[in-house]
Amino acid sequence: HTPVSVSGITDASAIALGPSHTCALLDSGAVRCWGYNEYGQLGDGSTADRHTPVPVIGITDASALALGDAYTCALLDSGAVRCWGNNSGGKLGDGSTTDRHTPVPVIGMNDASAIAVGYDHTCAALRYSSAVRCLGNNDFGQLGDGSTIMRQTPVEVLVSP
User: What pTM was computed for the model?
Assistant: First the structure.
C-alpha cells in the first residue's frame, strides 16, 4: 500500500506501463523491463515472467518507450523504431506476424520523432515532415489509411481535405 523502490533502477529518465509489464528508460539510453512475458515483451530473449528488471537486448540508445498489450516499442536517438513481443496483427512492423523475443526494426520508421501504441497498433510521427505512419490491426480504421486492412508495415495516415 506504499511505494517501494524498483530493484536495480536508480537512474531512470522515463517509465512506461503496459497492461501487465513495465519498462524503464535509463539515463544511458538502455531499457529495463519486468512483469508478464508470455510473448517476449520484456525483450530479454525469453518468455519467462520477471519480478525484477532485465535488460532489453540490443537497446542502448533509446529516447522514448511505448507499451501496448504484450508488446513494447522503443524510439532510438537516430529516429529508428524497434519493437518486440506479441506480433498479432503485424503491430511490430517487421513484415510478419511472428512474435519476437528481442527488438526488431520497424520497416520504414527511420526518422521518427515520437511513438505511440494502442492495443494492437503502432504509430510514429516523422521528424522531417508532418506525416504520421501507423501499422498493425486496422479493424476500425485506426491506422488512418482509409481502409480496414491489417498492415504489417507502416502506412501513411491520410489527411482529409
Answer: 0.95
